[in-house]
Amino acid sequence: MSTPPAFPASTVLGYPRIGPRRELKRALEAYWDGRSTREELDRAGAELRERTWLRLAELGLEALPSNTFSLYDHVLDTAVMLGAVPKRYLDAEDPYFAMARGTDGLAPLRMTKWFDTNYHYIVPEVGPDTAFALDAAKPLGEVRQARALGLETRPVVLGPVTFLLLSERGAAALDRLGDVLACYERLLAELAAEGVAWAQLDEPALVTDLGPAELAAVREAYERLGGAAERPGLLVAAPYGDLGEALPVLAATPVEAIGVDLVRGGLDGVAALAGKTVVAGVVSGRDVWRTEPERAAHALRTVRAHAAHVVVGTSCSLLHVPYDVAAEPDLDPALRARLAFAEQKVAEVVELARSSWDGPEPAAASVPLAAPVPAGERAPYAVRAAAQAERLGLPPLPVTTIGSFPQTGELRAARAAVAAGTLPEREYDRLVEAEIERAVRAQERLGLDVLVHGEPERNDMVQYFAEHLDGFAVTRDGWVQSYGSRCTRPPILHGDVSRPGPITVRWARHAQSLTDRPVKGMLTGPVTIVAWSFVRDDLPLRDVVFQVAEAIREEVSDLEAAGVPVIQVDEPALRELLPLRRAAQADYLEWSVAAYRRATSGADTATQIHTHLCYSDADQILAAIDGLDADVTTVESARSGGRILGAVGGFGRGLGPGVYDIHSPRVPGGEEVERLLREALKALPAGRLWVNPDCGLKTRTYEQVEAALTNVVAATRRLREELALS
Ligand code: MET
Ligand SMILES: [Zn+2]
């Protein structure tokens, strides 16, 4: 191929796609509900892309990315582009959304977290008979759409190695590398024929620990694609961390440009980038803070000393940050001045590209050393179990739920009305209390053993706590895509965290006042609160987590004082913050577990502490979960066919592997629940088994929940009788 033109001076690796006002969410949901056509949905997507390109150009960004848009998920888009659509979906009315969301008769493809972010991707299935065949319509279509506006773009596509490593079979799927590379070669040829100057292949898997086979795959992939006769210039981008051992391998291939994350990754390996164009990711795509100009300039100077050409860029796609700080007039001006969302980050990239990078060396980062915090010890489990059994008097196989009950539209509307000032807070509180009563009565009627208040007061399990703790700010429109049409508004943790007063106590107390059965108070754990927030970057993460743990510890103590006998502290994000590199994992697990214990170890011996994690590969971190020392742990299991059960044999305390997949409207039958319970009883003694759904019920309807829990209770009762007889 001929030498590509010089890469322009500034770029971003990707951009949010949900729309500044979540336009895509609305368009998707209208289509799914049958309120609009596929054409209307596609038009909404086209409009969002057009607005994004025009805005990026207006901000002065020189190299614009395309194909960063997706109707649902970019990994799913890649599977479709490569023809990796499992046969069972081909006859669906809309195979793309059938894979993403399932249909009446078909389960969706699995979904899991994207690297160490809270974005979820669809896991492709790649088997020995996947019939790969390129369909380049989407990337080509976006290039043409932008060109019609007079804008040249660089199509962004997930790279072949990461695509295979993220698929169901993981590294074993590299046995199909050759066929996948043939598709990518054709893709590059089609892009070249279209006159595209540069293409970007994203390879975030290269920042994880790679073995010899995986490194060989990297070499094979980029030797072959780099050697292709007809292709645009190639930028291989490796966001979310340090390229480490993959850097020299990649640098030795003919790709012209490499995108490195200089926020997460260090500058140690840059000498290996000699002769390359380097897209230097100095503006973070993972946080909401302004870039320190001295630190960025220092990194750019260091790269310039080695690379053939330096481009200012972002550390990763801006997918993980909200659109625009200007949409947040309610934020404290002093805080707002410290913030940069996607628009502001683009402006930073542009400004850095226009500056000379000269200047003083930055002061050595003065992040204070993390201070040790005692985790605290509770009485031995056997002592606790006896005290709790006496206090609670539960039957064998106690039935409980994970916390939330269906959130009604009425409640959401009321919350919006309070925010708008049109509904007095007192009336809202009464609505919440009525909703708690509804949930409690339903649970009594259904025959549950440990009741919950149903969490009607919470918009979100993290934001609610952030709103009631000092040190956090919440945004009005700071939405970030979590998966498909789902977005969250991560709070901004900007100062020292403290708890001005009780947060959940009045709701738990109200619930307990309505019933003689034990009520379980419901808190979000310190790791999860921090994981799902944008965190201040001037303190070690563990110190921030310990500050939050202290606040939760106070809340635990107040719940106990209010007579709540069971307290659940959820940690669904425990695994999400697990460092991508194994070398850093043990340290993380040690302090995150210690923080959880700090939050819960003040509890009385007779107070039963529960925790909840909602993923099926909890077995990866089972030792850490054990270290949490919770009296009862509930985990997802039904959705993933009980695979956790194989790993929990040695687990010494209460365990509730979910028997009901709450992600779909489907109501599980009694026999199905009974079968799952029998499976669980093979792995666990009856005295330690709890019965519960996979996760909270807030996205379901009361009708679905009551039908499902009726079956769950009936199945449990049958088994209890059997156990009593044996
Ligand atoms: C993502 S885990 C959710 C736990 C929370 N207590 C709920 O039931 O919704
Ligand atoms: Zn959950």
TrEMBL record:
CC cofactor note: Binds 2 Zn(2+) ions per subunit.
Enzyme class: transferase
Cofactor(s) of this protein: Zn(2+)
Residues that, per the record, bind L-methionine: 402-404, 455, 570
Domain Cobalamin-independent methionine synthase MetE N-terminal: 10-306
Binding residues annotated for 5-methyltetrahydropteroyltri-L-glutamate, in chain numbering: 25, 118, 486-487, 532
Classification via Pfam families: Meth_synt_1, Meth_synt_2
Record: residues binding Zn(2+): 612, 614, 636, 695
Chain residues that bind L-homocysteine: 402-404, 570
Gene3D superfamilies: 3.20.20.210
Ranges of residues in domain Cobalamin-independent methionine synthase MetE C-terminal/archaeal: 397-717
GO molecular function: 5-methyltetrahydropteroyltriglutamate-homocysteine S-methyltransferase activity; zinc ion binding
SUPFAM superfamilies: UROD/MetE-like (SSF51726)
UniProt keywords, alphabetically: Amino-acid biosynthesis, Metal-binding, Methionine biosynthesis, Methyltransferase, Repeat, Transferase, Zinc
Pathway(s): Amino-acid biosynthesis; L-methionine biosynthesis via de novo pathway; L-methionine from L-homocysteine (MetE route): step 1/1
InterPro entries with a match to the protein in the record: Cbl-indep_Met_Synth_N, Cobalamin-indep_Met_synthase, Met_Synth_C/arc, UROD/MetE-like_sf
Function of the molecule: Catalyzes the transfer of a methyl group from 5-methyltetrahydrofolate to homocysteine resulting in methionine formation.
Family, per entry: Belongs to the vitamin-B12 independent methionine synthase family.
Name under which the protein is recorded: 5-methyltetrahydropteroyltriglutamate--homocysteine S-methyltransferase
